[in-house]
Please model this.
Amino acid sequence: MSPDPAFPTIAELAGDLRARRVASVDVVRQALDRARGLESALNSFITLIPDAALEEARQMDAEIARGQYRGPLHGIPISIKDHIDTAGIRTTAGAKSRVANVPAADAAVVRRLKRAGAVIIGKANMNKFADGESGDNPDFGKIRNPWNRDYSPGGSSSGSGAQVAAGIVPLSVGTDNGGSVRIPAALCGVVGLKPTHGRISLEGIFPRLYTLDHPGPLTRTVEDCAIALQVLAGHDAGDTTTARRPVPDYGAGLRTGIKGMVIGVDRGYVTVGQPDVLAAFDVALDALRSLGASVVDVTLPPFDQLLAVGNTIASCEYSVAAAQLFHEHPSDFDAAVPPAASSADIKAGALIPAVDYIRATQQRRVLQSAYARATHDTAVVVAPTYPLAGRPFGPYPRVQNREFTANDAIRYTFSFDLLGLPAISVPCGFSHDGFPVGLQFIGRAFDESTVLRAAHAYEQATTWHTRHPTVVGL
Model:
């Protein structure tokens, strides 16, 4: 465990900032210094904006001094995944062909963060076009895991996970369409939330999978995730990507515990993974029982069915989203890009008949109903987040005496993007060779409050979230 003071939570920083025991400009300067010191080791940023960040921090300090406190994100340094539009700051989506793309307006999530007083220090490196979980960007280089720089932090929100884990920022905002928030959270030993589809706006985010994309926060604790979600969630007039649903107080029931809560687990579903991952999951189930929860068996829709339906929808939606970019920059879709973004696959997606896409969307409704019936008597379902403890660059290792595949990698995450359900990953252990392992809580649609409550109870009963990687590069 690192004794480094670079790991305060948002909740801790917020109290100090509001009481003026610390100044935002000093907190932001420390974040920038750490980012610069670690960048050669981690390669986690595409763009840093030190001058603008420090000027914004000075303004946040002046507001606090005048009694104009905006809330717990006021003066907090954060980063943004680099396919989320930021006015006046280049937004590349991880592609060098887009280095000249400087949006005139902020994405909706960025507007909300700025209104809350958050200070953006830079744009996080990512898998190119938010595709895959390799952490290997052919244009901007490999993003490194702070627990072991020879390994990936996961993806596609790779830089976001690495930055929170390395103590650079306490909050980074990423996106998830197959596991791209939760997988980096698991592999980096931090917390990552994918809310219900439609809970957070997609407006101003590089289009990929319209009905599968979910923006979400990566933080150091579940409480910090709740703080971030409170700012990010909700519908704005004119936004067609969010549901017109009330946003509850996510902090209100956070500490009420899980005694009597019924938690579901599908043992037939939780079958793929390295021994250390599956063992950590079993220990986590025991911890949940010790907190008073009942762990019951459920039977979820088969992953093969979920995958087939999801792949059809994803192929069609990405071929539409990438059509203009593919026409303008076909070389961006070459063999160096993960296979799902190859030119052949984009062309194939465009050739899928509309009737097949419509049938897949209908089948998704059937699967959503089947999942709802299977979990009717449970508050949440739990599963591992990622089957590997430590994700190497390049080929996957063999697991359970067979070849591990890209579909195995998203086994525990992609289903809940397709179903649109809220899911959070929290640290639940470490492998024998020192890699973090993630535990996932999945809830009912628009019931992030229960997901956060269950995750917080588990987190506070364990110490995994208090462990940090040894500082590198400084």
Notes: The longest strand covers residues 423-430. The first helix runs from residue 10 to 18.
